[in-house]
Write a structure and sequence with these properties.
single chain; about 350 residues; Nucleotidyltransferase, domain 5; 2 domains; 5-stranded mixed β-sheet; 10 strands; about 20% strand; globular
């Protein structure tokens, strides 16, 4: 069965056609980076307008590359949560119209569940359930137990900023470039990760054993970096700030993840999301001989339509259908926690 996947949750306008949940026939991603780069971050109004302008041509290109027409599509899968509301509505509205016009099933998909599925695309073997999931992006930092393609239990998440957001904010402050995660990763290869000893949050005990926090690290790297210099008389190099920040940001994630692995007894970890492309994260996980970590190919780490179509197929064969009245949702409950002691 051939499923058209549409993804417009943030600033990437994407569409893909995937056959039987695995074989990627096409995967088109129209990036908006040049339009957001002057602002060093995504501008929601610009993002939604660009989706409106591009969505038809992106879907058409996905169909053409797959050598298919609208009549060859068996179902439409589309992201309806979480994400920027205006952006989500563009993709969801287009998918509804396509499904209605062709009288085929519509499948509304959770964007983060799709990221967890991304490693199963193409020729990759599907990991056996249960496994641990590591979902890391500009908007989310989630450690979870996965018992099925659409059944996860969130074990830990951020109590403030997501890891990808912290990368972007630090890169913006120092004018490193955009997108921040990719730029800092490149710069870090030429920097000394021991030049600054940035602090780790005190969240490794009790009910927050699997949670992460990035507001403190972000503040330290931006406003207090002088007090964390290891060599006080050494020259401050941008590459050293990037490398030191990246190391601490990843180690915060890994501490919580390794706690979850030890406590759950699960030795398979499946990663997803834009930050899953980070080279330091991949290298550190590769060092653990007792853990098997599965990463998506780089082209499936960021937002893409293939992961939406892929997981949509599994909903389809189970008999799931979304009504044309289905709505978009900017947030998913449980994907972020409150700061300890704050009011709910």
């Amino acid at each position: 069965m051939k499923v058209l996947g549409i993804e417009t949750s943030c600033d990437e306008c994407a569409a893909a056609v995937v056959e039987d949940g695995k074989k990627v026939l096409s995967n088109i991603v129209a990036t908006q980076i040049p339009f957001h780069a002057p602002f060093n971050g995504v501008v929601p109004e610009i993002a939604s307008r660009k989706h409106t302008e591009w969505i038809y041509d992106v879907v058409k290109e996905a169909l053409n590359k797959a050598s298919l027409g609208p009549r060859d599509i068996d179902a439409v899968a589309v992201t309806n949560r979480p994400g920027l509301l205006g952006s989500l509505l563009v993709g969801l509205s287009f998918a509804k119209a396509f499904a209605w016009a062709r009288n085929i099933p519509l499948i509304a998909v959770d964007h983060m569940m799709a990221h967890l599925y991304a490693s199963q695309l193409a020729d990759h073997d599907s990991p056996a359930y249960p496994f641990l999931g590591l979902l890391v992006s500009g908007g989310h930092s989630i450690i979870c137990r996965a018992d099925a393609f659409d059944n996860i239990t969130v074990l830990g998440t951020t109590i403030d900023d997501a890891v990808g957001e912290a990368f972007d904010k630090v890169a913006k402050h120092y004018n490193f470039g955009y997108p921040g995660g990719a730029v800092i990763d490149r710069m870090a290869h030429n920097g000394d990760s021991g030049a600054f000893r940035f602090p780790m949050p005190n969240l490794h005990k009790g009910e927050h054993r699997y949670d992460v926090s990035y507001s403190g690290l972000k503040n330290a790297a931006i406003n207090q970096f002088e007090q964390f210099r290891v060599k006080k008389d050494a020259e401050i190099k941008p590459e050293d700030i990037a490398a030191s920040f990246q190391k601490t940001a990843v180690e915060i994630l890994l501490r919580a993840l390794f706690n979850a692995a030890a406590d759950s007894g699960l030795s398979t970890i499946v990663a997803g999301g834009g930050v899953a492309a980070n080279s330091y994260l991949r290298a550190r996980l590769a060092e653990r001989q007792d853990i098997r970590c599965i990463f998506p190919p780089p082209e499936f780490c960021g937002d893409n339509g293939a992961m939406i179509a892929g997981i949509g197929f599994h909903h389809l064969i189970r008999g799931d259908r979304s009504p044309l009245s289905v709505i978009a949702s900017a947030r998913v409950e449980g994907f972020k926690k409150k700061y300890p002691g704050s009011r709910q």
